[in-house]
Amino acid sequence: MSTQVVEPGGPLVGRVQVPGDKSISHRVLMLAGLADGTSTIRGLSDGDDVACTRRIMEALGITVTEDGPCTLRVEGRGLEPANGTLDVGNSGTGIRLLAGLLAGLPFRSVLDGDASIRHRPMDRILEPLALMGAKVSGRDGSSLAPLTIDGGGLRGIEYRLPVASAQVKGCVLFAGLSADGPTTIVEDRPSRTHTEELMEAAGIPLVGETDGPLKRVTVKPGCPAPFDHEVAGDPSQAAFWAVAASIVPGSEVVVDNVYSGPARSGFIDVLARMGADLVHDPATGDLTVRHAGLTGTVVTPDEVPGLVDEVPILAVAAACAEGETEFEGVGELRIKESDRLATVESELGRMGADVRVDGDTLVVRGGSLRGTRVDSHHDHRIAMSCAVAGLVADGPTTIRGWEAVATSYPGFETHLDVLQGGG
Ligand code: S3P
């Protein structure tokens, strides 16, 4: 287990380019693998989660060639059974989307992951896949990983998502590519739309409709065409620098080429409401953030799907703001890489933040932070949130379990050094 020490210091100044969007990176690898021909992907996430998906696609028979840093040529020519278990590592997106993809292919596959993955709920995908006729079973008759999938023979369904989840939506849409007819997803609370955008870019026709408060999207069975895609920077990683620059006096940070699209920029709206000085340029994607005093706000349940991964770092912003911030309807955080309601409460609490969980609401009252020892709980976003909090603590912050950061942002410390050194 590795530790990282973060020292409070002067302003963060300069420009950084965060890794390619993780959600998009998983999906482009899967679509390129299903396509018949050669696709080119630039700017792929360099995190371990996406590396696991790449290895899985290779184990299923595709050829991947590196043409430069984070640039890949992917040759798809029909997927074939893998030898052995497919390891998604720590990735919930990996296991849920791949389960949908593999449910449509006429052979047996086994998907497994680390200890965190083995505890995360898979019933949310097993239910719609069973309605499609898929044969997917969990460990010892449960719905937990490892998942054994005997693929093929799927029927199209209409499915209303019981939780706002882009992973479940993506799983069903990937399965829908191999069904016997159209598959429709109905959402009450719109989630990120990467699966839809990327399937369309790969020539899969989708039909979207708005039906009062409901959003429907229908996919017909089909095979993606090869494509070229440049993955934009991950807004979830940019959020760490946006909060860091907001809370450290004198800071000015530009994050290059940050993705913008439905249900991904919620943290920008929340920070702006808290008084942050930030601009996201729609033409370049550049996110420019300068230090500003923050005040508390209320984040409503409708906003949560658009910032679900950013709650830990927004909690750091709230801990440095004047007054109280409430994050309502954040129960889904209990089933992320860690129980993030518990880990935000315990780790920011150790640093002296006034954090409490009240049912599905997270309440944070602003104050001062102290440097101390904290633990990542094997969760990359908890580790990086503590690191940002450490920038304004009264002494060094030691983060145990720092290796979790490699899941999504292996270059985080280097970027922190660059910004602390003034760019
Ligand atoms: C993701 C969707 C979200 C998010 C996860 C990535 C995706 O999960 O938390 O990090 O790529 O579809 P849910 O769909 O479970 O909300």
Labels describing this entry:
single chain, 423 residues, alpha/beta, UDP-n-acetylglucosamine1-carboxyvinyl-transferase, Chain, 2 domains, four-stranded mixed β-sheet, globular, binds shikimate-3-phosphate
CATH superfamily of the largest domain: Enolpyruvate transferase domain
Molecular shape: globular
* Number of H/I helices: 13
Structural class: alpha/beta
The CATH C-level class name of the largest domain: Alpha Beta
Distance between the termini: 30 Å
* Low-pLDDT residue spans: none
Q: Biggest β-sheet: count, sense, barrel?
A: 4 strands, mixed
The neighbouring-strand order within the major sheet is: 2-15-17-16
Under CATH, the topology of the largest domain can be stated as: UDP-n-acetylglucosamine1-carboxyvinyl-transferase, Chain
Provide the helix percentage.
25-40%
Average of pLDDT: 97
Query: How many beta strands in the DSSP annotation?
Result: 23
Radius of gyration: 21 Å
Q: Which hetero compounds are present in the coordinates?
A: shikimate-3-phosphate
User: How much β-strand is present in the residues?
Assistant: 15-25%
- CATH-derived architecture of the largest domain: Alpha-beta prism
